[in-house]
Amino acid sequence: MKNILILAALCCYSVISHAQTQSQTQAQQQVEQQWREQEVRVPQAVQNVFRQEYPGVQEAEWSTRPEGAYHAQFAHQDTIYSVTFDVNGGLKEKNIVLDEQALPSHILVQTRKLYPQYTIISIEEGTDASRVYYKANLARRPQGNQPGAAENAVNSLSVYFDEKGNVMDEEHQ
Question: Which end of the chain is more exposed for a tag (fewer CB within 10 A), N or C?
Fold first, then answer.
């Protein structure tokens, strides 16, 4: 009898726990759906500059930044772009995903020289108000048997280079 009561209690707990998890998942999905449905109202000045700079782009994913800027991600002429404008249409930042072949050779040489244990995953060229820079997204698998490391764990690193190939910053992930 005692075993039956314990089993019944476990079943009730399992049903309640499952219902709460389902409820939380549904609530999260509703919030995400509402967020996706919110239309970003891009100022006319930003729209005009965007159409002038990127004629023929029919679809762009727009979002706003906390500082009030407008950010667009899109593909144009087989290239992936990410651009940020201020409210008046001034370009704040532009990022372009590059093929390794499009990367200036001295940046590629410097990346391979400084990070030989890493593989290049992607490269971006960035432009802001004052400079051009390059971001190399790199990945490395752990060497040997490291305690606690998953067999297929990947160490990621983003390295920022200036136009001359000097490392400006690193972000370990």
Answer: N
Is pTM beyond 0.70 here?
A: no
Q: DSSP of 85-115, one letter per residue?
A: E-TTS-EEEEEEEE-GGGS-HHHHHHHHHH-
Assess if residue 135 is contained within a domain. Answer: yes
Instruction: Report the chain's C-alpha Rg in angstroms.
Output: 24
What's the CA gap between 67 and 98, in Å, rounded? 28
Number of domains in the chain: 1
CATH of the domain at 112: 3.10.450.360
Token pair of 144 as six digits: 């040997």
CA pair distance 42, 20, nearest whole angstrom: 39
Is 19 within the bounds of a domain? no
Measured from the Cβ of residue 64, the count of other Cβ atoms closer than 10 Å reads: 14
Q: What angle do CA 135, 140, 144 make, to 5 degrees?
A: 160
pLDDT tens-digit readout, 81-121: 999 999 999 999 999 999 888 899 999 999 999 999 999 99
Cα separation, 144 vs 49, in Å, equals: 52
SS3 116: coil
Query: Is residue 36 in a domain?
Result: no
Range(s) of the domain holding residue 55: 44-172
User: Does any domain span residue 83?
Assistant: yes
